Amino acid sequence: MPSLATAAWRDSVALLLRPLAVIVALIGYSAPGLPHVAKVRYARVIQKQAHKRHFDPATYVALVEHESHWRAGTESADGEDIGLGAIRARYVSACRRDPQPVKSPGKACLAVRESLRNGEHNIRVMARTLSSKRKWCKQRTGTAWIWQTIGAYGGLGCRHKARKHKGVMWIVNRRKQLLRRLSRDRKRARASATR
After folding, report:
1. 12 has pLDDT over 70
2. Whole-prediction pTM value?
């Protein structure tokens, strides 16, 4: 019988190696109205980033649903957060050095802000940011639970207040819902195939 640690490792590897069709299905559950071509484009990027950064694709899907409802050009009312992952532009590339990255951005910062409206690029930046926040939480607290990572991504830090935050827990619970639905649909498909 495998140890608990071995079983957990095997399960986590299975999460990372999701086939493209599974990620497309997760996006479809999250955004049924999104054109299939867009689902596939985003799923390819999510699959690559999940594998590269050892992250479950369902987490990315739930986070994007919460932050932008899969609208690539979305911008927050205050102009701070842009795109699918609601990336805070002031912390990205040339906008870091810009004295007015929101109210009066320079040319280089404008280019960064525009690039964040590209869905695939935004997912890559989101994945990189989540990965760095997970590492930061691990260094600060010794743990990197999903709620800590998402809390840090949202600017709440890695402490217990993130676990009580409504938005953080919505993402964690939505991820679980997406995975349950995927499991249920797979069981139905297997059952109908054996008839």
Report:
1. no
2. 0.89
Phi-psi region of 102 (alpha: psi -120 to 50; beta: other; left: phi over 0): alpha
Nearest CA-CA partner of 165 in 147, 192, 138, 144: 147
What's the pLDDT at 16?
54
What tokens appear for 147 in the block?
């709620």
Evaluate if residue 9 carries a pLDDT over 60: no
Interaxial angle between packed helices 36-53 and 20-30, expressed in degrees from 0 to 180 and rounded to the nearest 10: 120
